[in-house]
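Extended Data, panel c. Modelled sequence:
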Amino acid sequence: MIFREVTLEDLQQYSTFIRNHYIEVSDLSPTSLYIWRNSYRVKMALTPDYAVLLCSYRGATYCLPPLFNDQIDLTTLINKITAFFHQINKPVIFRAIPPAMLQSFPKDKYRIMADRKIWDYLYRTQDLIELRGRKYQQKRNHINRFCQFYRFSYQSLSPQDHQGCLNVFNQWAAEREGSQEVEEERTALTEALHNFSTLHLKGGVLKVEGEIQAFSIGSKLNKDTALIHFEKANSEFSGIYSVINQSFVANEWSETKYINREDDMGIPGLRQAKERYYPRRMIEKYVVVEGY
């Protein structure tokens, strides 16, 4: 099994495997893999029959869910990946494994662990657009107050907006100076903006008094679902996150059924914010390790 750095050309072949599977796990998004490839040291073993992704992050090396065609037996492929880990003298770790794949890991050989902090939040698109009912009253109040106090406009993100988006990110990042995660996200955002059309991204910006104060960027994950990669705003404008959230989905993704807003990384404030939008369900992902 030969792994190499991920290139834009590789993503074209990789995307054929994505189309053959109904992918719900955000980790397997071609866009995510590419823009985060440096931080997670993503490498890919790509053949006409399968795609296997290897990541190394903060001392841990692990494999994401393998993708394959109808000619491949998953258990056989898992054994091949396990043998590769043995060859490089690393613990055998699989991450972000969806429930449907778990049966291919023999219980006498692998330990399966739920990891709630990496589960994705999946929302109904229409729920995020309409914000109907008592449970969304607070969100509607935030939006109404924003509309009352600020002169603003929404528009689809264009190349001329890239620097404005970076300015918003830099302002957000200044409050979190010294964080490794922030610098990794800055690198990913820069990659996304630089390869915006090639990666088939969509974006939206919110301007207040003519200046960009919020932006959001996403891509198609599967035929029904859009994946939100970035959402940043100047929090000095009360309610602005509620407005960019609704506006982006309504203007760019209204034809989809679902919106995947990724995981909460186990951060209490982020978990609370995502739960307050009432996900339709969680995309469960598991960690699988060899031995006990």
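The longest strand covers residues 211-222. This feature is highlighted in the accompanying rendering.
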